[in-house]
Structures are given as structure tokens and as C-alpha cells.
């Protein structure tokens, strides 16, 4: 088990471009989460999946954001028409089905929109 | 609903001194509480967790935390700081489906 893996680690993009991030969770975990962390703040919940079903989305997740988890394995987070305010660290985490158990985090993808 | 307040965005201690990072929480259900550590440009690593049972929980790297229901607190301590402890520390409370609500973090600086 290699833990939660995120790619890329860093992404610099021009405003208005689309970007996509990938997360590979711990293999036996059926819950997968996306969080966003801006400078000097704690991570904020964006969305989560149980298997392939996206069960909750935060109001932080504007319509420019979309997340998928086909076949309940890896997940992708796409941001369309990026804005400078999207610059942040995007963290993926996974956990088992056990209620309110700990989540294991990936290294994150740092997005810079210029 | 859940919320977490971390008092002190920056804490500085001398190497070998006691580390105390404060966390207060609010939870509509019996709280499950966590401390995570984050090194620069890295993800979050779990230090310790409280679910039920013993209120004093021990974690990795010599850290421990005590759950005090009457004070709604879950402060993190370490008897003797090491230079390698310098990092950002986040307290979090778990809601339904293990979604975490984090505090704003405390940056720990360790000086010689």
C-alpha cells in the first residue's frame, strides 16, 4: 500500500484555462474526499465520494468545478475557466467505510493561476 | 454542525521546552477529534485521534492530547520540543461520513 497519490504535484496555468487533477486513494478505501487549502488556512471540504457516487458537494464547489470517480477507484477534479482565486493546494484524502474514522491525505496538488 | 478554534496562529518554543497547542471544538454529536501535522508543501499526516474511551491519547513522535468534554478542548502537548517538530499543526473534528472540519492551524517554530 503506497498511500494516497496525487498528480501533478504542481500546476501553473494561465487564467481561463482548464486544469485536471488526479487522485489515487488507498486501494481498500471506498470513501474519497477533496479539500482545498488556501495560504494560511486549514483545509476546507469540497466534495466526497462513496465508491463511484458523489454524495455531497460543498457550496465552495462552484459550477466551474467538477469531480468524478469512475468505477469507484481513482478520482479527477477538473476546474474550468480558472480564475486567480482558484490558486490553492488541492488535497485528496481517503478513508474506510467506518463512520467518522481518520482520513489519509495525499501530498496535494498546488495550483497557481497566473 | 462542527467547528474548531485553534488559539494562537504562531507558537514559538525553545528546543527541549514543552509544546502546547490549543484546540477547542464544537460538535452537535459526540466528537471524534484529530490532530494532523503538515510540513511545507506536503499533505497532512495524522498525529493522533480521539474517538471513545481513554481521554488521554498518545500519538506519533512523542505527541499526546487530552480530550476534556467539560472544556470542549483537545489540546496537543509534547514534553520536549525538537527542531524537527517545526511545522503547521491542524486540529479537526469529524462529522458524518468522516468529513473533517479543520481549524485554521498553528505554526510551531522551534528555536535553539
How is this structure best described in words?
The complex is a heterodimer of chains A (114) and B (112). With 114 residues, chain A is mainly beta. Chain A has strands at residues 5-7, 10-13, 19-24, 31-37, 44-50, 53-57, 65-68, 75-79, 88-95, 104-105, 109-113. In chain A, strands 2, 4, 5, 6, 9, 10 and 11 form a seven-stranded mixed β-sheet that branches. A four-stranded antiparallel β-sheet of chain A has the order 1-3-8-7, with no helix packed on it. Chain A starts with a strand and ends with a strand. The model of chain A has no long low-confidence stretch (mean pLDDT 94). Chain B has strands at residues 2-5, 10-14, 19-21, 24-27, 33-38, 44-50, 56-58, 64-68, 73-78, 87-94, 100-102, 106-111. The model of chain B has no long low-confidence stretch (mean pLDDT 94). Chain B has no helices and twelve strands. In chain B, strands 2, 5, 6, 10, 11 and 12 form a six-stranded mixed β-sheet that branches. Chain B has a four-stranded antiparallel β-sheet with strand order 3-9-8-7, with no helix packed on it. The chains are: A mainly beta (114), B mainly beta (112).
Amino acid at each position: 500500500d503506497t498511500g494516497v497519490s496525487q498528480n501533478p504535484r504542481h500546476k501553473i496555468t494561465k487564467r481561463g484555462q482548464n486544469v485536471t487533477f488526479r487522485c489515487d486513494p488507498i486501494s481498500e478505501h471506498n470513501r474519497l474526499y477533496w479539500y482545498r487549502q488556501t495560504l494560511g488556512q486549514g483545509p476546507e471540504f469540497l466534495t466526497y465520494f462513496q465508491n463511484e457516487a458523489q454524495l455531497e458537494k460543498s457550496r465552495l464547489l462552484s459550477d466551474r468545478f467538477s469531480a468524478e470517480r469512475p468505477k469507484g477507484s481513482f478520482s479527477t477534479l477538473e476546474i474550468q475557466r480558472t480564475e486567480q482565486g482558484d490558486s490553492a493546494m488541492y488535497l485528496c484524502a481517503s478513508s474506510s467505510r467506518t463512520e467518522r474514522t481518520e482520513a489519509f491525505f495525499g501530498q496535494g496538488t498546488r495550483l497557481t493561476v497566473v | 454542525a462542527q467547528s474548531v478554534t485553534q488559539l494562537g496562529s504562531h507558537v514559538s518554543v525553545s528546543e527541549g521546552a514543552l509544546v502546547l497547542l490549543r484546540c477547542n471544538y464544537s460538535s452537535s454529536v459526540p466528537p471524534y477529534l484529530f490532530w494532523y501535522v503538515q510540513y511545507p508543501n506536503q499533505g497532512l499526516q495524522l498525529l493522533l485521534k480521539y474517538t471513545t474511551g481513554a481521554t488521554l491519547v498518545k500519538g506519533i513522535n512523542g505527541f499526546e492530547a487530552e480530550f476534556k468534554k467539560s472544556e470542549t478542548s483537545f489540546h496537543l502537548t509534547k514534553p520536549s520540543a525538537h527542531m524537527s517538530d517545526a511545522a503547521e499543526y491542524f486540529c479537526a473534528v469529524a462529522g458524518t461520513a468522516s468529513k473533517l472540519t479543520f481549524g485554521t492551524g498553528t505554526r510551531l517554530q522551534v528555536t535553539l
